[in-house]
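Consider this record:
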Amino acid sequence: QVQLVESGGGLVQAGGSLRLSCTSSGRTFSNLPMAWFRQAPGKERDMVAGINWSDDSTYYANSVKFRFTISRDNTKNTVYLQMNNLKPEDTAVYYCNAVKRYTDYAPIHSWGQGTHVTVSS
């Protein structure tokens, strides 16, 4: 049973930055594509960024491109999401998950608790 643990969320003013972290118990990430997702209140969960496992190729949703950066440290079994120039519309609960392809919304494991990000205007 893989348990995903996200952390690093918080309250930040518009234009600020946060770095989210994701780790797991039970299985290593090193051979799996990984992705970050978010779910705003009253909306569906969307995929915002993905990273391949073999060559660190990345994917970003248009809404976060050039502001967010996904990265991974396989030695620490951790995936990161650096979020810069945050906007109020980035307010959501952020989740990570392994995916079948780093460009596709295809989560593999059960969802963790997520980490809350609130951006004030």
Observations:
- DSSP finds no helices and ten strands in the chain.
